[in-house]
Amino acid sequence: MQKPKFVEGQIYHIYNRGVEKRKIFLDKQDHLRFIHDLFEFNDEEAVINTSYHFNIKTFQKNTIKERGKRKLLVEILIFTLMPNHFHLLLKQKKENGIIKFMQKLGTGYTMYFNQKYERVGGLFQGRFKATLVKDESHFIHLPFYIHSNPIDLFHYRGSTSIMEILKDLENYKWSSLPDYTGKKNFPSVTAKELFLEFFGGEKEYQKAMKEWLAEKKENTEKIKDVKID
User: Fold this and answer.
1) Distance CA 166, CA 161 (A)
2) Alpha helices per DSSP H over the chain
3) SS3 for 192?
4) Distance (Å, rounded) from C-alpha 46 to C-alpha 40?
5) Virtual torsion, Cα 58, 62, 63, 64, nearest 10 deg
6) Sequential DSSP letters for 127-150
7) How far apart are CA 210 and CA 201, in angstroms?
8) pTM score, two decimals?
9) Residue 60: which of 215, 223, 154, 173 has the closest Cα?
10) pLDDT in tens for each of the 229 residues of the chain?
11) Longest dimension (CA), the chain
12) Which of 61, 110, 206, 208 is the most exposed place for a label (fewest CB within 10 A)?
């Protein structure tokens, strides 16, 4: 897939997965580390020692102490982590911001992962994939599509109500959905204002998510040109 030209102010669906579809998040610490990296690497300045700033207990309590005022490369609008891949919706703020951010994120997390698990080589399946969010239908449906990804992990048997599915998604910690529906999860990471203003706030976003899930198959079809799997 040829990458689009990244332009300031535009929104892009970003995706990457583990090489040979291997799992890239093996435990709770891995998830927390990647989410912390989303926060830490979103800066024009270089990160000298990520492990110095990374503290699981501090990060879980959302009491991150910034090392100074950051100059953001992107706005992280939406994220979801799955065992062997991740989805992001990013809005570019600086020239080449997405490229710089994704290089720092990919390199930094790979170094952490390889050191922890005593492995060498690339962790991700080539360079990240990206598509431009250019239509209103993309803007409406992509957030819900990305936030609904964890459904595949729940292994439902028999009939399951939309409310049960929504509750499970809101309790899935490795996603920005809880923050969008009023549960403080990782509020320092995600820039929620754009979508919450568009949908009318947290309660309305939750309501729209429920309605989207009720017609998930049809709604997913509407964004097949920007849906990356």
Assistant:
1) 9
2) 28-40, 50-53, 56-60, 97-117, 136-147, 162-170, 177-180, 193-199, 202-214, 216-221
3) coil
4) 10
5) 80
6) SPEEEEE-SHHHHHHHHHHHHTGG
7) 14
8) 0.91
9) 173
10) 567 889 999 999 999 999 999 999 999 999 999 999 999 999 998 776 555 455 556 555 555 555 567 899 999 999 999 999 999 999 999 999 999 999 999 999 999 999 999 999 999 998 999 999 999 999 999 999 999 999 999 988 878 899 999 999 999 999 999 999 999 999 999 999 999 999 999 999 999 999 999 999 999 999 988 777 7
11) 51
12) 61
**For residue 89, what are the β-bridge partners?**
13, 78
Q: Which CATH superfamily is domain 11-133 in?
A: Transposase IS200-like (3.30.70.1290)
- Starting at the edge strand found earlier in the chain, the sheet holding 85-92 runs 74-82, 85-92, 11-17, 129-133
Residue 142 in contact with residue 89, Cβ under 8 Å? Answer: yes
- What is the domain partition of the chain in residue ranges? 11-133, 136-221
